[in-house]
Structure formats: structure tokens, C-alpha cells
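Fill in residues.
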């Protein structure tokens, strides 16, 4: 396989979901069902789509979502994501499952990115990996993924007899008492609260899909909630992230940052998320596809296209800055009409 070529197994790994892939399809359908309302005769000669997240400057309100097996899609792994993010002017999510090691990243990238943690060992291991992430100097925030207490069934991978876990080295798991997911399945809100108290970095809790869980995350010490159904790759028949975003934003208030992912592909999608309360949008499948197709430069080009799309969408809805984006630029269609009335 060529360096940036996606064969059938990797394509299905990147683009697929769990079980019947209902959640995967729902993510896209729900985004498409929200309409944007054009507004005219406003001064949009200058459009500024920039924002920030925990002191990380974002040229557009986007981060590269963490991909554990990013090394299968680009030989440089998470280093390629970080390089692209810094070249464009956003932050990259770096998974604990990804290569290279935290220490190697620390020699090249300083304080610009977000470390994503799966609970892969016991409490001693968790404390150590949190310490290593902070000591590396590469990260401005810590993201704890909480929607994988059990790993889902992904039929495409099973049919292809493909296991990402066996296909790539994971240097950050090389040291310490790594388990087989048993401790992860016992990880509860009280343990999250302890983890938040250990971290020198603001904590983001990823995998939130209800207002109740969002409030619990904030009560445990999280600085941000990450609304996500894992791109349709965990619980099948779950709601889409964009459908749950208004409810969650209303529950946690403006003091808590909100990131959202799952199904976002265009600048218009980003505008919809910001209008419904998101501080930033995570790019997962698009992130992996761009890196595989064109390396870090391909990712930069994809971000440039998103920026152009977002800028045009902001201008045509009469919003020269993100602070002026509100639900007034949206109208619901039939799939989202019920929650729209309840959450306004």
C-alpha cells in the first residue's frame, strides 16, 4: 500500500460505524435537516471566524478530533495532525492510543494541542499518563473519553477480519500496568472527579449525549463537555450529536465550553453547531481522510476549504463575527422540529 493510499479495510475502518450504522447515518441526516436562513443588506465586507479554547487560538472554531489509529492513515501519526493544526492555526486532539510517544511529541509541539485519554489501565496508570501528558508540554487541555466502557461491534471490521489494535504500535501504552478494559468499565463519576483533581490541565469530558451527564461532568470538575456519539461508532441507534447539542448547551450554561463532533464535514455544519451553542467542532472522519490523501499539507488544504465555506455561510446569514451567530440563523426541518420547540 502506498503511503497515503486507503485500501478497502482502512476505508471501512475510517468511514464505518457500529452494527447497522443507524447512528452514523443519523448524524448526517440531522445536520442536513437544519436550514440556514439568509439575511441581506448587512455589512459583511469583513468576516472574522476566529475564536479560542482554553487559551488556544483557533483560526476557525474547529479542532482535529483524536484518532487512536491515526498511524494507519499517515506514517507520522499524530505528529502529522499537530503539524497541520499548527500550520493552519487550530488545535489537534492527540489520542493516547496514537503514535508517536508523548515525550517525542513534547520535543516538537509546545502547549498547542489536546491530549485524549482512554482509560487503558488502573488508577496508578491513569495518574501516570496524566502526569506524562502535562510534563510533555505539548497540551493545553486533557480530554477524557467516557463512552467506551465496552467496545462496540463494527461489522465492517469484523467482516474484513481487521483489528486496528493489532495493526499498529501504541508507544504510550508501553509502560505501566495496562489492562484489558476492566478498569475502564468500572470508571464512574467519583473516579472522574479524582482524575480532574490530579490534572494540571483543564479537563474535557468526551462522549456526552444528555443534559444529565453534562451536568454531572461539570459537577465532577470538567471545564468542558464534548458532545459526541463517537461518530456513530459506539452505541447504534443513539441520537445524533447535533440533536442533543441545544439541550446540553442549555443545561451547562455559557460558562462551560462545549465541543461537538460526529458527522461534521462542511463549513455550513460548523455554523449550525456554533448557532446551537458549540465553542468548537471536532473533525474526525474528515481529519483521517485528508491526512491519508495528502499528508499534513492535505489536511491544511481541507481546513482552508472549510474556512472559505464557513466565511461565506457567515456572510450570507448576516454574521460578520462568531459572536453574532445565534439560533436566529437557523430554522428546523421535520426531523428536529420537536426538540427545537422544547429547547428554545
Amino acid at each position: 500500500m502506498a503511503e497515503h493510499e486507503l485500501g478497502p479495510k482502512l476505508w471501512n475502518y475510517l468511514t464505518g460505524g457500529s452494527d447497522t450504522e443507524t447512528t452514523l447515518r443519523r448524524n448526517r441526516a440531522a445536520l442536513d435537516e437544519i436550514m440556514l436562513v439568509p439575511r441581506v443588506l448587512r455589512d459583511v465586507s469583513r468576516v472574522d471566524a476566529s475564536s479560542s479554547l482554553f487559551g488556544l487560538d483557533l483560526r476557525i472554531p474547529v479542532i482535529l478530533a483524536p484518532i487512536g489509529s491515526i498511524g494507519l492513515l499517515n506514517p507520522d501519526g499524530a505528529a502529522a495532525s499537530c503539524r497541520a493544526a499548527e500550520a493552519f492555526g487550530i488545535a489537534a486532539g492527540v489520542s493516547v492510543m496514537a503514535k508517536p510517544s508523548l515525550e517525542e511529541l513534547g520535543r516538537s509541539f509546545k502547549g498547542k494541542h489536546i491530549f485524549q485519554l482512554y482509560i487503558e489501565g488502573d488508577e496508578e496508570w491513569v495518574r501516570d499518563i496524566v502526569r506524562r501528558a502535562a510534563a510533555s508540554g505539548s497540551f493545553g487541555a486533557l480530554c477524557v473519553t467516557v463512552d467506551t466502557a465496552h467496545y462496540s461491534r463494527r461489522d465492517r471490521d469484523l467482516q474484513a477480519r481487521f483489528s486496528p489494535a493489532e495493526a499498529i504500535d501504541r508507544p504510550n501504552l508501553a509502560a505501566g500496568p495496562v489492562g484489558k478494559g476492566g478498569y475502564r468499565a468500572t470508571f464512574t463519576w467519583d473516579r472522574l472527579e479524582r482524575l480532574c483533581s490530579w490534572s494540571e490541565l483543564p479537563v474535557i469530558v468526551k462522549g456526552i449525549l444528555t443534559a444529565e451527564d453534562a451536568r454531572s461532568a461539570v459537577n465532577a470538575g470538567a471545564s468542558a463537555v464534548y458532545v459526541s456519539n463517537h461518530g456513530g461508532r459506539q452505541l447504534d441507534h443513539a441520537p445524533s450529536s447535533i440533536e442533543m447539542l441545544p439541550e446540553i448547551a442549555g443545561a451547562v450554561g455559557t460558562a462551560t465550553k462545549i465541543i461537538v463532533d460526529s458527522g461534521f464535514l462542511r463549513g455550513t455544519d460548523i455554523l449550525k453547531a456554533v448557532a446551537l451553542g458549540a465553542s468548537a467542532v471536532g473533525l474526525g472522519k474528515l481529519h483521517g481522510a485528508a491526512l491519508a490523501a495528502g499528508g499534513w499539507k492535505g489536511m491544511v488544504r481541507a481546513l482552508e476549504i472549510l474556512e472559505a465555506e464557513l466565511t461565506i455561510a457567515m456572510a450570507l446569514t448576516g454574521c460578520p463575527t462568531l459572536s453574532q451567530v445565534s439560533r436566529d440563523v437557523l430554522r428546523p426541518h421535520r426531523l428536529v422540529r420537536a426538540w427545537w420547540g422544547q429547547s428554545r
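The first strand starts at residue 35 and ends at 36.
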